[in-house]
Amino acid sequence: MESKVAYLEDQLEELRENGLFNTIRTIESPMEGRIVVDGKPVINFCANNYLGLANHPSLVEAAKNAIDQYGIGPGAVRTIAGTMGIHNQLEERLAAFKGAEAVITLQSGFTANLATIPALVGRGDAIFSDQLNHASIIDGCRLSRAKIIAYAHNDVADLRAKAKEAVDSGEYNRFLIVTDGVFSMDGDIAPLPELYEVASEFNILLMVDDAHGEGVLGKGGRGIVDHFDLHGKVDIEVGTMSKAFGVVGGIVAGKRVIVDWLRQRGRPFLFSSAMTVPDVAACLQGVDLLENSTELVDRLWANAERFKRAMQALGFDTGKTQTPIVPVMLKDEKLTQEFSRKLFENGVFAMAIAYPTVARGEARIRVMNTAAHSDADIDEALGVFEKVGKELAVI
Ligand SMILES: *Cc1c(COP(=O)(O)O)cnc(C)c1O
C-alpha cells in the first residue's frame, strides 16, 4: 500500500526540484545587528528587530525580574484562569502610548487578525481588502465567511468604485475596509487618510494592520494612526510586538466598544492562552523606553536614510520604499538568489525575495535597517553591496 504521506513527500520533492524549498538557517547568537548564522558571523539585515530591542539589556532584565515575581506561564486562557495584573497593565500602557481608547493584547499579530476580523464581520457582510495584504489578514477574512472584495494595491479610486458598487447592490449588511499599514516587501505606506475618506463616505469600518509601523512610524514609534494624526478616526489598529518591540505578542487598539467585544468574542482570545509573563514584562519595558526617548526610533530612520542614499549613489534601484525597509530591486530571480548568496559569503545576511512572494520579474534583496546597526556595520555592508554589485554587473 502507498504511504499515507507520499503526497507530501512528492510535494516536498517538487519544491526542492524547483528551488523553492526553504532551508531555515540556524542562528547561534542573540538577535543583534551582527549575528552568527550557521557558524558564520554576518551583518544582519533580515530581522524585523527595528529598534534593536530583541536583546536589549533593560528588556532582558525586566523579563528576568518578572519571572522571579510571577513565574512564566499564564496558566490558561484569560477568560477562564483570570488575567494577570501585568497583562492589564501592558494594555493600559499601550493604549496611553498610542493615544487609543483601549487595547487588547493577543499571542501574536497573526492571531490578532484572526481574532478581530471574524468578530467584526460575518456571513452576509463584505470586506474590502488590499490585494497585497498580509497572509494573516487574508486568513482572518476567510475565517469570517464574509465576501472578500480585493482592491488594487493602495488604489483609493478602485476601492471607492468597489465600495460604491457593493453598497449600492444592497446585497450586504455590513462592510469593513482592511489594509496593511506598511507593506513589508516594498516598504510603502497605505494612504490611510484617503482610505479614511472612503470609509467615512460609505460609513464603513476601517482597520489597519500596522505590524511594520508599530515602533517605527509616528512620534517616537506610536504607529501609523499617530503618523497620519488619525486618532479616533481609524476604528481598529492591529499591531505586533514581535517586530520593533523585539519580543512577541499582538495588539488591537481602537474604540473601547470594539476592544470590549473582542474580550467577549475574539476566538484566539477565548480559546488560546495569553502571552507569557517574560514577554509581557519585556514589552512593558519597551513601552517605557519609547515613552521616555525617541532616540532609538530616530537612529533607525537615520540609519535607513543613510543606507538608502548610499545605495542610490552606488546606482542601485531601491524601489518605492517610504520606510526603513529597503528593497534592492534586481528584478531577475536567478540573479537575486546569486546576489544574496554572494552577500552572505561576504558577511552580509539579506534575504532574496522572489516569486511567489512578489510578482515574477520583481525579485529583490530586502534590507531591513535597524537601530541595532552601527555606522561601521552600515559602511561595511555598503562595501559588500558595491563589490557584489560590480561582480554581478548590476552597477
Ligand atoms: C509580521 C506581520 C504579522 C504577524 O505578526 P506576528 O506577531 O509575528 O504574528 C501580521 N501582519 C502583518 C502585516 C505583518 O507584517
Secondary-structure topology with pairs:
Elements: H1 6-17, E1 34-37, E2 40-44, H2 57-70, H3 78-81, H4 85-98, E3 102-106, H5 109-120, E4 126-130, H6 135-144, E5 147-151, H7 156-169, E6 175-180, H8 192-202, E7 205-209, H9 224-227, E8 236-240, E9 250-254, H10 256-265, H11 267-270, H12 277-292, H13 295-314, E10 325-331, H14 333-345, E11 348-349, E12 351-353, E13 363-368, H15 375-391
Parallel strand pairs: 2-11, 4-5, 4-6, 6-7, 7-8
Antiparallel strand pairs: 1-2, 3-9, 8-9, 10-13, 12-13
The structure holds pyridoxal-5'-phosphate.
| Corresponding CATH superfamily of the largest domain | Type I PLP-dependent aspartate aminotransferase-like (Major domain)
Mean pLDDT level: 97
Form type: globular
The helix content, as a percent range, equals 40-55%
- Major beta sheet summary: 7 strands, mixed
Number of helices: 15
CATH class of the largest domain: Alpha Beta
What would your notes on this structure say?
With 395 residues, this protein is an alpha/beta fold. The mean pLDDT is 97. Helix content is 44%, strand content 16%. Helix 4 runs parallel beside helix 12 (277-292), helix 5 crosses helix 10 and helix 13 packs parallel to helix 15 (375-391). Strand 7, helix 9 and strand 8 (236-240) form a beta-alpha-beta unit. The radius of gyration is 22 Å and the shape is globular. It has 2 domains: 14-44 and 294-391, Aspartate Aminotransferase, domain 1 (Alpha-Beta Complex); 57-292, Aspartate Aminotransferase, domain 2, CATH 3.40.640. The longest helix has 20 residues, at 295-314. The protein is built from 15 helices and 13 strands. Residues 108-110, 134, 136, 180, 184, 209, 211-212, 240, 242, 250 line the site of pyridoxal-5'-phosphate (PLP).
